[in-house]
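Table 4 source record.
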Amino acid sequence: MRDEIRRRAARIGWPILVTVLMLVGWEIAVRVLGIRSIILPPPSEVLAVMVERHDLLLAHLWPSLYLTVLGFALSVIGGILVAVLITYSSIVRAGFYPVIVVSQVVPKISIAPLFIVWFGTGTLSSLLLAFLIAFFPMTINAAMGFEAVDEDIHRMARTFMGSPWQIFWKIRMPNALPYIFGGMKISITLAIIGVIVSEFVASQEGIGYLIKLAGGLLDTPLMIAAIAVLSIAGLALYMVIASAESFAVYWQPPAEVVAAGGG
C-alpha cells in the first residue's frame, strides 16, 4: 500500500516539480535579460492577468469547452459504432476504412474555411471540425480492441452457445475498453485543437478568438494567459478520462492501459 502511494506521489510530484522549475527559470531569464512583456512576459505577469481578467477568460473558455466536450462525445459514440461495423462487416471494413484513413491525412486547417462556407460562422462548424479530428483515433483504437480478442476464447464462447450479443458484451467490449480509453485520451486533445482552429478562422467568441484578438492588439500577456487557461482546462478533461479509465479498467495497471490504448 505504501509503495503504491509512493508511486502515485512520484507520478504527480515529478511533473509538478519540473513545471515549477521551468516557470522559475522563465521568470529569472526574462528579468535578467530584460525582455519586454510584448515579446515574452514573465509568468508572474501572466498570472496577474489571469487573476485580474478572469471574467473575460472564463467567458471565452466556456464556449470552447462546451464545443470540445460535445464534439468529443460525438466522436466517441460515432467511433465506437463505426468500429463495431468494421469488426462485424467485411463490406464496411473494405468500404469505409480507406475513407477514414484518407480523411485523417487531409490537413484539418484546410477544411476549416470550407466548413465556414457550408455551415456559417456559428457553433456548428466548430463542432463538426472537433468531431472530425477526434473521430479517427476513436474509430481505429476501438476497432483494434474489438479485433484483439483471443481466438481460443472466442471459439470457446461459440462452443458454449454464446450469442453474438453475449460475446460482444462479455468478451469483446471488456477487451476493447483499454483501447477505447486510449483513443479517448487522444481524441479529447484533438477535439480541443479542432475547436480552436475553427475559432481562429471565423468566430466571435471562444479562447481561439480571444488569442487571435490579443495577438492583433499585441497584448502578449493576455494571449499567453488565454493559452494557459486552455491548457489547464485540457489537462482537467484528460484527467477526468484517466480517472474514469482507472475505475472502468480496474483489472489493469494504468501503465498497461495506456500502452494497450496506444495513448
